[in-house]
Amino acid sequence: MLQEILEAVRELVALGDSDLSAWQMALRAIIIYLTAIVLVKVGQKRFMGKNTAFDMILGIILGSVLSRAITGNADLLPTITAGATLVALHWLFSVTSFHFSFFGTFIKGREKMLIRDGEINWDNMRKSHLSRHDLEMALRSSGQVTEPEDVKLAYFERSGDISVIPREKSRALRVVEVSVTEGVQRVRIELAQTG
User: Fold this and answer.
1) What is the pLDDT of residues 136-190, one digit of tens each?
2) CB 149 within 8 A of CB 127
3) Helix 53-71 crosses helix 22-42 at what angle (to 10 degrees)?
4) In contact, 125 and 113? CB cutoff 8 Å
5) What is the C-alpha end-to-end distance of the chain, expressed in Å?
């Protein structure tokens, strides 16, 4: 009985056969889709977000490996096993990098400071392959500032984003003294001007 069920499943998804019909490929696509959902849940969706190149690599390779099973270019069960192995390896590397910062830096890279107190670090700009125009665009979109002089700190993060911490706006005080006669003393008014 079990042998007959396994044979029916084998024929349904064409295990070991590279000549697939349209419905067999559709059934494989459903199986791979459900498997990918499980793998993403196990991988905690980290590699599907905007993270480091380390995370993106898994997403690209996993998609490539799993797609081969849909088209029949690879056997179904070994492909699912390979996908699960990739997610497990990614998880192991993530856990290791959490516990050992040197491993995390090796795998994910290091952030680079681009601006400190309004001064651009051109050496880190070159290492990051960023032009002044790239930096100015990031300042406008991330920090709502237009000039590097208005930035306290800016970093090229491991994810490829540029984070910006604007300088605090200086407050200029202007004091106005008003003298009134006839029994009223002097009134002092401080006007704060942001700029």
Assistant:
1) 998 888 767 888 988 999 999 887 888 999 988 765 566 666 666 676 666 666 6
2) no
3) 160
4) no
5) 82
